[in-house]
Amino acid sequence: MEAIGVEAKMAHLLTYAIVSLFFSVSSAVVDLIPEHNFVTCVANQSPQYSATISKLVYSPHSPSFSFIFQSSIQNFRFNSTKFHKLQYIITPYSADHVKAAIICSKVHGLQVRIRSGGHDYEGLSYNSYVPFIIIDLVNLNNVRVDSNNGTAWVQAGATVGELYYHVANQSKGHGFPAGVCPSMGAGGHISGGGQGTLMRKFGLAADNVVDAIVITADGNILDRQGMGEDFFWAIRGGGGGNFGVVVEWKINLVPVPPKVTVFNIPRTLEQNATKLIHRWQQIAHKFHEDLFIRIIIFVGKDSKGGKTIQANFNSLFLGTSDQLVPLMAKSFPELGLKPEDCKEISWIQSTIYSNGENPGQPLEVLLDRNHVQKGFFKGKSDFVTEPISETNLEAIWKVMQEGEAGVMVWDPYGGKMCEISESSIPFPHRAGVLHNIQYFSKWQEGGYLAEQRHLKWMNRLYNFMAPFVTKNPRTAYVNYRDLDIGRNIHGIFSEAKIWGEKYFKGNFDQLAHIKGMVDYGNFFKNEQSIAPNFYL
Question: Among residues 177, 171, 100, which one has the least CA distance to residue 135?
Answer without folding.
Answer: 100
